[in-house]
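WARN no homologs supplied; continuing
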Amino acid sequence: MPGLRPLPATDAIELKHLRAFVAVATELNFGRAAARLYVSQPALSRQIQALERLIGCPLLLRSTHRVELTLAGEALLGTAVPLLADLDDAVALTRSAGGEVAARVAQLWDGVAEDGKPGLPQMREAYEALNAQFPVPEGTRVRPVQAGGVSALVVSAGAAGPPRLLHLHGGGFISGSAFGYRPLAGALAAATGATVVLPDYRLAPEHPFPAALDDAFVAYRWLLDQGADPSELVISGDSAGGGLAVSLMVKLAREGLPQPGRAVLLCPSVNVVDPPDGTPVARWLSLYVGEHPHTDPLLNVFEADLSGLPPLLVQSGTSDTVLHETRRFVDYAAEHGVDVRFDLYPVGTHVFHLFWSFLPEAAAALEQVAEFVRSPATDIAAEAG
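OK structure emitted
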């Protein structure tokens, strides 16, 4: 059309495509490069093909057993490596100059961190106070429901459509509430356009395992009873809620109920039965686990058969306290044939999504959640390979 012109290649190139090329060009192996970037090999190949289309020439020569650089690829690699290094340095410098954001995040979490082992009521109060400092997006609508007998909130951006995103809140299974999580649920609803159901599942120690899982299961079954198409449903969870989301999908498989179309795990805490001794997390989780056998796949996801789970989007921060177990879970899921996408963000706090109102990485992460949730199932399967 006369009034429209395509963007210059340098404006249209995405940073992830350039990093994908550098990874393959450095490794000269798609498998190692894919593992390095935590993406599937088909997805990595598509990113490089997109880069080649924008530049207008082939960068790699691919054969069954080897990868070679073309002359154009060698030229781009020579300039891309220092360019990315300079960009990373610039980001680091900017972060050091703008440390007030990180300081604000740390200050907000300070109220929740243990200081002299406060009692459970104080812990719960501190977590609610943390969430109360975040805004609920303008235009958000909230109404209470009984989701199969489980108290819950339905959160939507404007007029509510049929609920299709079930979010399980964090809080170590001993704290957190549907009411307190209205800001994050509102942000998820605003980003994805989906109506969110927030179950107020029972907490330990008053209600140890499997109370939270049973409530999540009842809430999901309620969504099915509302006539929801399972392929259009999404299960999401943050921190302990992320681990609970995985347990829920394992239970769905055991009970013969349909899986959701996809699932989103935000800084998931999945190591329920074996946290580091002496840590606050270990004390919290022991209240949830109680005397239940640690080998139960519904409690210990690393004992579960994850085959048949829907496509997963897993997000975490580079300095998240549970990053090690998150990476272990991503690898474990991939070994079971799950289409899993793992996105890392350069942030140093757990569940950074809570800070969406002022943390750019959190806003960007929610945009990626929206893209994942809105994509047709066929696109997700193609992206994962």
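Residues 1-7, 381-385 have pLDDT under 50 and may be disordered.
OK
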